[in-house]
Specification:
By secondary structure, this protein is of the alpha/beta class. It is built from three helices and seven strands. The chain has a seven-stranded mixed β-sheet with strand order 1-7-6-2-5-4-3. Helix 1 packs across helix 2. It is globular and about 40 Å long.
Length: 145
């Protein structure tokens, strides 16, 4: 499935719709892999997902810190949103210092991982794979698969 996103309002609505499709797994975190070139919309989508889940603090790209964890309000299906940016990583082994294995064992974690292709050797099968493309007219395309 593909969706064309014309503006921030459409992105916000798509993030809300996407969040409604997610449910915690029984014995592991829910991993969502976000692929696309720089500027394609991965972080913007993550920000919209965070808002849809009730995160009130400012959500920024973890490019230099690699990982940010946001506590979610009660009554949400997940307890934590974990945002990881693997852009600067070259192998899955570099996820270990982030406590990735422990994060992935907790079913109350929703993990959004940007640049999964950089650490593919350490990843379990994701619950969802989204690919982002910036289009020449300024809009973006999200492909689910």
């Amino acid at each position: 499935m593909e969706k064309k996103i014309e503006d921030l309002e459409a992105l916000t609505e798509e993030a809300k719709r996407f969040v409604e499709t997610l449910a915690p797994a029984a014995n592991a975190a829910t991993l969502v892999a976000l692929s696309g070139e720089l500027g394609a919309g991965k972080t913007a989508f993550t920000k919209a997902v965070a808002r849809a889940l009730g995160v009130e603090e400012t959500v920024t790209s973890p490019t230099f810190v690699l990982e940010k964890i946001y506590l979610l309000p009660a009554k949400k299906p997940f307890k934590r949103l974990v945002h990881i940016d693997a852009y600067r990583l070259t192998s899955g082994a570099e996820l270990a210092p982030l406590g990735f294995d422990e994060l992935m064992k907790d079913p109350s974690n929703l993990v959004l991982l940007e640049w999964p292709e950089h650490v593919a050797d350490a990843l379990p099968a994701p619950a969802a794979r989204l690919s982002f493309t910036a289009l020449p007219d300024g809009s973006h395309k999200i492909s689910y698969g």
